[in-house]
Amino acid sequence: MNLQDIEAFVAVAETGSVNRAAVRLNLTQPAVTRRVQNFEAAMKDAPIFNREVKPAVLTALGVHVLAQCRDVLTAVAKLQASTTKHATPVGELKIGVAHGLGGIVLTSPLDALRRGFPQIKLQIGSNWTRDLIEDMRSGSLDCSVGLLTDDHIIPNTLVRHRLGAEQVVVVSANKAATKANGAPWHLRDLADEGWFLNPHGCGCRAFLMKSYERQQLPLHIIAEVFGEDLQLSLLAHSGGLSLIPRRQFYESSHRHHLQILEVCDFALPMHVTLIRQAAPGRFDAVTDLLTTELRAKLS
């Protein structure tokens, strides 16, 4: 048994497939399969996978073995980190950024990374927060910056660092912030209004839909529009409602034509959060700097 075989077993167990494990390890599928077979042979062919179901799942013994293998890989990572923590990180750092956060992340924080670690090559992609968490879990990303609510579940192989609070607000082009008598709006007051919303996959949209469903209210979606800035532009032009992070609203050139509504039965507090691997790694110093810069940016 060697570390490569252990890594292959852990990757297959955590991602749920040889294909995703191969992507994580940057190997071919046959190579991953061979390593897992070697690992099982070293385990005396003990039943660690139940292959009677498709896809195969871990047995009770397999769950125990996975925990032990994680401990081994964490110990090795700590040993490697202790000998390389003073070395300059090099290589490709893969960062995921939640949709809507590019204006925060892709400015001074990344400038600081480039100045501090000139030998790092940055590879940056954007996705919904739930998909970033899955990409982190599968090892496709080194770190990510997402908009997290209390409903998001972070696997124990990852750690989160809260960077700053964010609130998603209801924005309108043709309503005042409150009713004429100064009272806040209710969702039922907005039931006849149309919405510009992100496509499926957006956590804010899902939260709004559940809020409407709980009150058995109809939700009228005028258009699915990818990106809050385009939503604000359409909102200012044609009216309706949209969900926008408060910080992004105040940075928009369209804000003077729009209004944040006080809606007493709708609140969506979120946190801008950096997610990283729990095990020590060669990019720890880089992610530490990114965390510090983002906290300063959001303070």
Provide a descriptive summary of the structure in words:
It is a single chain. The protein is built from 11 helices and 11 strands. It is globular. By secondary structure, it is α/β, with parallel strands linked by helices. It folds into 2 domains: 3-84, Arc Repressor Mutant, subunit A (Orthogonal Bundle), CATH 1.10.10.10; 89-299, 3-Layer(aba) Sandwich (D-Maltodextrin-Binding Protein, domain 2), CATH 3.40.190.290. Helix 8 links the parallel strand 7 (194-197) and strand 8 (220-224).
Fold blueprint:
Blueprint: H1 3-15, H2 18-25, H3 29-42, E1 49-50, E2 57-58, H4 60-84, E3 91-98, H5 102-105, H6 108-116, E4 120-127, H7 129-138, E5 143-148, E6 158-172, E7 194-197, H8 203-214, E8 220-224, H9 228-238, E9 241-245, H10 246-250, E10 259-261, E11 268-277, H11 284-298
Summary of the model, kept short:
This protein has helices at residues 3-15, 18-25, 29-42, 60-84, 102-105, 108-116, 129-138, 203-214, 228-238, 246-250, 284-298; strands spanning 49-50, 57-58, 91-98, 120-127, 143-148, 158-172, 194-197, 220-224, 241-245, 259-261, 268-277. The protein is an alpha/beta fold and 299 residues long.
Keywords:
globular; alpha/beta; two-stranded antiparallel sheet; 11 strands; 2 domains; Arc Repressor Mutant, subunit A; 23% strand; D-Maltodextrin-Binding Protein, domain 2
